[in-house]
């Protein structure tokens, strides 16, 4: 079996092989992980729709606050009166957008370790609760420092991403692992698109919907509170639903005889079911996925911010002069296409290409798509709408394909009792890159507006060129010798 075929295989990262009968290995009474294993054995290979529903719902609620502010961030910073000139707004907006990722970068490893030791469910519940509280407080911000502080705390306390990826693997049998991670990435990507749509349509309601919201009401005095409280209300509903969410972590040590059963399997099955190395820092297949994972995260965050800032900026700066509602509509349609793609098409992409090839192809396509954005300023009316909507939809699809493939490789390279920590470490690394992305994108966008009249690569073209260079670096690290795929001999030693 070749490297890429092994990468595409639906590996079973549980310590106990799903292929063995229930009588052939040990179950502990009262252990939630063993109870989940028994549920999987009794399902007869069926997709665990109930558990994946919880995965999608909690992931969506956690992701909405991240980019909900993007459509109104420019106007919010302007209303804080911290920027001396219009061209400086992008810089301040970059710091505001990055504060969430900075907080998450410092806490993700901690939440991953807690998820491995205490359980997935407590961390998931606490993360959703933090969204309810601190996203509401962000909407009530009246000063720039208050907005920064609430986003920083929210990022620190929302530790859902690491355990939810582990959870999505653990509730599925081997043949459905790709679907489990696809649900996480779909819901996350969908939230990152629906969030801006909510921000675009619900921000400044007293100005957009004066017949419903008066300027003297709470939504008139706090023009950015409505989209934030809408997200918090959804998170509160999800928090209640978490009562019925089963735990998956094992609360006991795996008996040595069960590990010997795994080692006695034929070579290909042993690759799928063997316990991984104890030290994550010595697990080169897992380590090698980190760089491309971080570059893809950097690109996605920078793209989201630049797209919003570029679309609402004036045409004299190379923008489209869109309103927050316009860009919100674009992102909403992109999110809808993403959902359709993951439900209907992605399964076949994964089946025929595998995670490695699909990540490479989608990364290359992303570069081509992003290259078209600066030329859209020459369009207007229906032509502009068609071009922008088409590009946004295709870009969402290829981005989620690449991130799902890399996430699948990461989670297959580690054992269950390390998976929360491993996802926490990768989330921390990615969060640092995502924290740098809005700051760098903000400065780059401000610089571009001041150099729009340059003869060689006008400002708007330079912005998208830099975005493509970042994506190109991520693409490079999906090839050997940068990417290391596990071998049977290495895993079974």
Question: How many helices does DSSP assign?
Answer: 21
Query: Distance between the terminal alpha carbons, to the nearest Å?
Result: 18 Å
How large is the radius of gyration?
23 Å
Share of helical residues: over 70%
Find the structural class using helix and strand composition: mainly alpha
| Low-pLDDT runs | 1-25, 256-277, 488-493
What best-fitting shape do the alpha-carbon axes yield?
globular
What is the N-to-C succession of helices and strands? HHHHHHHHHHHHHHHHHHHHH
Mean pLDDT: 79
Largest sheet: none
Instruction: Report the sheet-strand fraction.
Output: under 5%
Total number of β-strand segments? 0
Main location: membrane
InterPro entries: MFS (IPR011701), MFS_dom (IPR020846), MFS_trans_sf (IPR036259)
Transmembrane segments: 52-77, 89-111, 123-142, 148-167, 179-202, 222-245, 284-307, 327-349, 361-380, 386-409, 421-445, 465-485
GO molecular function: transmembrane transporter activity
Key terms:
mainly alpha; disordered N terminus; 493 residues; 21 helices
What are the SSEs and their pairings?
Blueprint: H1 3-8, H2 32-42, H3 49-67, H4 70-80, H5 89-117, H6 120-139, H7 144-157, H8 161-170, H9 177-202, H10 205-208, H11 218-221, H12 225-241, H13 256-263, H14 267-273, H15 284-288, H16 290-312, H17 324-370, H18 381-412, H19 416-450, H20 459-476, H21 488-492
Fold and architecture overview:
There is one protein chain. By secondary structure, this protein is mainly alpha-helical. It contains 21 helices and no strands. Helix 8 (161-170) crosses helix 19.
